[in-house]
Amino acid sequence: MPPSEGAAPALTRHGHWIGGIAVPPSAGGYFEDLDPDVDRPFALAARGTAADVDAAVQAAQAAFAAFSRTPVNFREGVLSRAAAILERDIESLAALMITEIGSPIGKARHEVQRAADVFRAAAGATRHLSGKTLPSDVPGKMNLTFRAPLGVVASITPFNVPLGKGVRLSAIPLAFGNTVVMLPSEESPLMALRLAKVYEEAGLPPGCFNVVTGYGHEIGDALTGHPLVRSISFTGSTRVGTHIRELAARSGKKLTLELGGKSPLVVLDDADLSRAVQAAVLGSFGNQGQICMASSRIYVQRGVAAEFLARFAASASALGMGDLHDPATMIGPIINARQRARIKDHIDDAVAQGATVVSGGGWIGPRCQPTVLTGVTRGMLCHAEETFGPVTSVYAVDSLDEALQAANDSRYGLSSAIFTADLGHAMRFAREVSAGMVHVNGATAQAEPHVPFGGIGDSGMGREGPEYDMEAMTEWKWVSIQL
Ligand code: NAD
Question: Which of 161, 167, 185 to mutate to test the pocket of ligand 1 (most atoms within 8 A of CB)?
């Protein structure tokens, strides 16, 4: 997207949010925030610079000293009130999500409600920052430990779940007494600015939550490399995450990475097929496939493969592609031209190399039809790469062994799922599949605020969830007392 100094005057301009106020961009530039369903700009957001990033980090650092000493019930109160504000404003937040990233309304409402749940989990986490007392080798000496907040946390969010991840990557560090600078995706700057208003209304002191908008490739390094940033919490593509991992390794900063996926769904002969089809539809096509945990590889045991494929393809082609405000709509627009080109490439490449399009494959404007492929083989782009669109491949397998082997033949390892009535098979899959998350008789796309959410390999490192984030967002202190 080009900067838009000469854009239509009707568009509202939005500055950064630094130190509790809206701040215009230091270099004066703005960029267009596009509504992907019509490919038209609807707002202008500040195009951040390294100077803006520095101002935000300095504001967060300045706020840290007082905030880190606030009593637990203060932080608990702020986060609880923020949850209530989200629930009160669910319709206007969902409306913004529809306009800014093209979410169908069902997904948008669900995301707001889940974000409220995360606020409540974070509020509860404020009371669980516990340490230990330990024995000593020295007579009369007592050892104790506690967890201290770090300081400024850089929170970098993707476009596809802008509020869900916006809340996760800010509420948890705040719960522990850190302060936050958020860099949202350039596709969803307004949602992060709206979140800042939620925090303000909930009573969070100025400077504790800051937002710098702009292009990640221009200002991301200024944020992750800033000497005052103590921990980085990143959700986004494996490409950018790998770059950040290298930088963080050099600087020694704490790091949590939640990256892409190629999550396998396995359906065995004894599965409840109706539930399996339903989970496959939700997991493959929810939010038009723009889900990190998308079921983009489906392995079906041969005895039920034909029936599964027929029912799955029929359900896929019946999905609503209408008005995003209509709850019957499941398939919205793909976020931008680059992503649309990537999805088209994946489908075209598969077809050119001999794959079969069982359903979908076409486009209605910016929307890709839910697409089911068979005959996908190694070497095709969609065999191993994340498509991040409504495209999945169905493979027939002879056994659980073959399903496991295929499922583990990936550099990703985010989520996974198996449908079977055999608990032994389910537990074997759970133990042996290379993934951070395993669901038995459920979809690959699931999240809850308090579980260890995350993956292995190219899907990331560390886990989200209040208990697990503690390691990345606090520091142990050992205190000894000689009595
Ligand atoms: P992206 O990697 O393009 O962008 C993510 C964020 O990184 C944006 O805020 C962007 O501004 C920022 N960024 C870009 N360059 C940077 C740099 N050099 N330094 C620091 N930040 C930089 O990802 P996206 O297209 O917004 O999101 C889609 C991807 O996110 C998919 O791969 C999806 O699987 C993944 N995702 C993962 C999870 C998870 O929990 N594992 C959840 C949602 C999305």
Answer: 185
